[in-house]
């Protein structure tokens, strides 16, 4: 019976410790996620997050966890607090009060371990922030940058500033108290253990001093000045429905952008630039086109004043794309409808600028309603064909273009008379998919071909069915779909 009681009490203590630990960790996790999400999505911290990245969210997300832990850690060992509990609840439930008093050491240790772990995570995140302040220094946002310039010394920010110095003192103090509180040290040097725990006065003093420098700043005029992409560097007007915009810098992620504003982004040869191809469909795209047209007209008029020197965009992304697998495929067929050609342009420009081995065979089918659409990237297609012809690889790039509405031979000759490689590959109407896939099966028996498509749902559904049907004829067709919505 006595042994059973011992097992019962030991198991009860064991379960109690782990239940408390489970709830405490869960509570801290919720608090951290809420704070992290706030700094990750709040537009007030957009420009600061461009400099610091996720280091800002981690460092600020751990702050409320630290605050709660530091507020509670001294309570289990505070005699005044325990005496107050005894007076308030002693008559109501003495058994519960005794159970709490027996577990004060367990609670204190739990809070101490969590404080040490979160403090280390917080400190590492701040060190990463210091590095990012220097490495990502931007003269345009020097008001929110802690560093004095791109050549600022990281050690100066870490040890010679009030915020950095106080943070180091707090971390060293906490580590010293934790080390001297270990059982092996505590049993041999108990006086040192007691003395070290009085360093909590220094710790709390530095805690109140640490945030006084106001390193973390937020934007206060979000209603008047919205987050943006960057300056527009160059613009090309293809027609009254299309424009090509070259931004000076790649866009960064901005929370809360509407889905209707997501458009294809095309990387150029320069990594610091992006090319944005926009189809004018109404609302903001029409207004953007009008502004760009006025901007270009003002450039032509030497005496004119350009009222739209700064054009700002709200861009979301980039997102993972199935098209990134193209470079790993040996044989590909890309089918694009209208603006659906844009994901393939990245591959075309890469093939133009480099001599990569894959893809070894490229088949392109581009379908469009108007001839003006083919003007977008006809030059790239023609130059890529000429490149492979000069390398004695005429069969590496196979092209078929389909003009589906208002086909006009005279207009075709007028637009592409000096580009025979484009004119000879232009066809009237829609493609016969059976002929396209029969050619693939004939060319590549018992081989694999990756089929990529970007276009309306009806087209992608039909291509998917054709891939499934013709895979039974000895050629393995793997289908991948890219969408913009």
TrEMBL record:
Its main location: membrane. Keywords: Membrane, Oxidoreductase, Transmembrane, Transmembrane helix. One of its GO terms (cellular component) is NADPH oxidase complex. The chain crosses the membrane at residues 15-37, 65-85, 106-134, 154-181, 193-212, 332-352. CDD domains: NOX_Duox_like_FAD_NADP. GO terms for biological process: defense response; superoxide anion generation. It holds the Pfam family Ferric_reduct. Residues 330-467 form the Ferric reductase NAD binding domain. Residues 85-206 form the Ferric oxidoreductase domain. The keyword Transmembrane applies. This is FAD-binding FR-type domain-containing protein. It comes from Anopheles culicifacies. The lineage of its organism: Eukaryota, Metazoa, Ecdysozoa, Arthropoda, Hexapoda.
């Amino acid at each position: 019976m006595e042994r059973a009681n011992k097992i019962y009490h030991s198991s009860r203590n064991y379960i109690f410790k782990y239940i408390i630990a489970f709830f405490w960790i869960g509570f801290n996790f919720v608090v951290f996620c809420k704070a992290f999400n706030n700094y990750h999505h709040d537009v007030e911290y957009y420009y600061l997050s461009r400099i610091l990245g996720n280091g800002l969210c981690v460092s600020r997300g751990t702050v409320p966890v630290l605050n709660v832990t530091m507020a509670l850690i001294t309570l289990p060992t505070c005699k005044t607090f325990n005496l107050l509990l005894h007076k308030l609840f002693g008559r109501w439930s003495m058994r519960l009060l005794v159970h709490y008093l027996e577990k004060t050491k367990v609670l204190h240790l739990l809070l101490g371990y969590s404080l040490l772990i979160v403090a280390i995570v917080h400190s590492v995140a701040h060190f990463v922030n210091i590095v990012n302040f220097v490495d990502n220094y931007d003269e345009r946002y020097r008001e929110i940058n802690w560093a004095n310039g791109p050549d600022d010394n990281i050690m100066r920010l870490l040890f010679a500033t009030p915020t950095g110095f106080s943070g180091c003192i707090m971390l060293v103090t906490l580590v010293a108290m934790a080390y001297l509180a270990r059982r092996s040290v505590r049993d041999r040097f108990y006086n040192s253990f007691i003395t070290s725990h009085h360093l909590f006065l220094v710790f709390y003093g530095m805690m109140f001093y640490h945030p006084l420098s106001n390193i973390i700043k937020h934007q206060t005029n979000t209603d008047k000045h919205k987050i943006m992409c960057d300056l527009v560097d160059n613009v090309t007007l293809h027609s009254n429905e299309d424009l090509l915009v070259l931004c000076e810098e790649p866009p960064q992620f901005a929370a809360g952008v509407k889905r209707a504003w997501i458009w294809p982004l095309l990387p150029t040869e320069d990594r610091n630039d992006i090319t944005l191809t926009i189809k004018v469909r109404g609302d903001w795209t029409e207004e953007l086109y009008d502004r760009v047209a006025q901007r270009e007209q003002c450039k032509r008029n030497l005496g004119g004043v350009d009222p739209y020197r700064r054009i700002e965009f709200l861009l979301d992304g980039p997102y993972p794309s199935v098209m990134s697998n193209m470079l790993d495929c040996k044989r590909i067929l890309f089918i694009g409808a209208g603006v659906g050609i844009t994901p393939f342009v990245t591959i075309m420009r890469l093939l133009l600028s480099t001599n990569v081995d894959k893809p070894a065979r490229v088949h392109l089918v581009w379908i469009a309603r108007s001839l003006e659409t083919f003007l977008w990237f006809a030059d790239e297609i023609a130059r890529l064909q000429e490149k492979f012809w000069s390398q004695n690889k005429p069969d590496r790039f196979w092209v078929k273009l389909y003009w589906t509405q208002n086909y006009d031979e005279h207009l075709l000759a007028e637009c592409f008379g000096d580009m025979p490689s484009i004119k000879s590959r232009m066809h009237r109407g829609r493609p016969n998919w059976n002929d396209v896939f029969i050619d693939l099966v004939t060319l590549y028996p018992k081989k694999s071909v990756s089929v990529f498509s970007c276009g309306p749902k009806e087209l992608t559904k039909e291509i998917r069915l054709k891939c499934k049907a013709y895979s039974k004829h000895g050629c393995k067709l793997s289908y991948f779909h890219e969408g913009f919505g």
